[in-house]
Design goal:
- It is a single chain.
- This protein is of the alpha+beta class.
- The chain has a single domain, classed as Alpha-D-Glucose-1,6-Bisphosphate, Chain A, domain 4 (2-Layer Sandwich).
- Helices cover about 25% and strands about 50% of the residues.
- The protein has three helices and seven strands; from the N terminus they run βααββββββα.
- A seven-stranded antiparallel sheet has the order 1-7-6-5-4-3-2.
- The longest helix has 23 residues, at about 125-145.
- The radius of gyration is 15 Å and the shape is globular.
- The termini are far apart.
- The mean pLDDT is about 90.
């Protein structure tokens, strides 16, 4: 049976300048400090500017630990940080991006897009609960950037 990717999107305004929000977003090793579900981050490759380009994650999801590796795309830096999955244990694919827009008053509007396709289809109520947890990352980014 073919499963379709589940997509989620969220936008938020953060009371911090874009350079601060960008710096937090690309400091992937610090994600376990401010993102509840990220338990471990291992940078396996960096680009020519020293930014993480291939990253292994261990996160909690749906009551269990999951592992996946993401490739990061800085082609639209510092306006966007995009990623796509190289490999995962319960995921068939993960594609996402943060887009950062200065508001002109020292704040940053952040748009978060995510598409995940799991190996095994989930019931609707489980998907909705998981989506709320995943989208919580943008609220955690806001809280950390404003702290």
């Amino acid at each position: 049976m073919q499963t379709m990717a589940e997509t989620a999107t969220e936008s938020i305004t953060i009371a911090a300048p874009p350079d601060r929000v960008w710096a937090i977003a690309i400091d992937l090793e610090a994600y376990p400090v401010w993102t509840h579900d990220v338990k471990d981050v291992v940078i396996t490759h960096r680009d020519e500017e020293g930014r993480p380009s291939t990253v292994e994650f261990r996160t909690s999801a749906l009551g269990r630990s999951t592992h996946y590796t993401l490739a990061y795309d800085y082609s639209d830096a510092p306006n966007a940080l995009a990623w796509s999955m190289i490999k995962g244990d319960i995921q068939r694919s993960i594609d996402g991006a943060f887009r950062f827009e200065p508001t002109g008053n020292g704040q940053t509007h952040v748009h978060y897009d995510l598409a995940i396709e799991l190996v095994v289809p989930l019931p609707g109520f489980v998907k909705r609960r998981a989506e709320r947890r995943i989208l919580n990352a943008i609220k955690e980014l806001k809280a950390f950037a404003e702290a």
